[in-house]
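It is worth pausing here to work through a concrete case rather than discussing structure prediction in the abstract. The textbook approach is simple: state the sequence, then state the predicted structure, then interpret. We follow exactly that order.
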Amino acid sequence: MKVLTAIGARPQFIKAAPVSEALANAGVRELLVHSGQHYDQGMSQVFFDELGMREPDVNLAAGSGSHAEQTAKMLVGFEQVIERERPDVVIVHGDTNSTLAAALAAVKLQVKLAHNEAGLRSFNRSMPEEHNRVLTDHCADLLFCPTQAALERLGREGITSGVHVIGDVMYDACLRFGRLATARSRIIERLKLQPASYLLSTLHRPYNVDSSERLSSILRAFGRIGEPIVLPQHPRLALRIREHALAVPDNVKLIDPVGYLDMAMLEQHARLILTDSGGVQKEAYFYGVPCLTVRPETEWRETVAAGWNRLVDADEEAIVHAARERFWPDERPDLFGDGRSAERLVALLQ
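Step two, the predicted structure:
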């Protein structure tokens, strides 16, 4: 069997790492194709270095651009590679433009498509990721769901063939690399932090950072919280803070983007996480750290139902109130599998 794995953005590198290892252990030949959607050291190469992933066989070097421009470049590139290599199956992860481009290229060339992390829905149609994940699910031949709820959502959309609940491969990565982070990362000492004495935030969604009003509201809330808040700067966030000439509160420590191991350490030892990232919401849950999601909705509704994730949108008062409240329960249900999701995925492929 020959598998082509499409990756392109940092969440996909994390998801692909345990799957690539499982493919290698099963003797499956994998062609790793990087779209180049994330391309700088802090957003791309550091993940390959830290996760022990081999270098991609092909890098399409699509780079940045509008959604149409970027997706079109990647679609052409993936089509050329798939046509040349003729894999038995194309694996796509998550919901980025890279995901959709590779999915469309595969189905147009009548190559079987497997979607890992299928069945997620935020029901926010203004999010590009929502369209990417819906379209990819409806293209796929094999749909690997992280939870039973994801499978049930697909059923309500009429997708019942080739659907499997395997657990979450990001949990596989968390179990393995979380321990590695503890052994190797020194970011807590480097930033002079004390465990459970700081908050951690990530912000990158366009509807948060591109809006001066929303971003200002979030930053004002951070200032009112008063506790130290570590905020790794996604390139988009850094640009918008400069463009909007926004004041960053003194208690907010802006740092450069960090690699996976440093991020895992920051997540594990934070008192509270505030984020608009889907992946970080999950990682907060994995590590048993309460999370405030600065969005009006989430694709990870299970974490909200479990009480460990609260939706606060960009509402200044809601953010401040929730940050000062102990809103999470003592119990944390096992929602995302047992850390062997990648093995199940490969077994189903075979």
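Step three, interpretation. The longest helix spans residues 67-85. The first strand starts at residue 2 and ends at 7.
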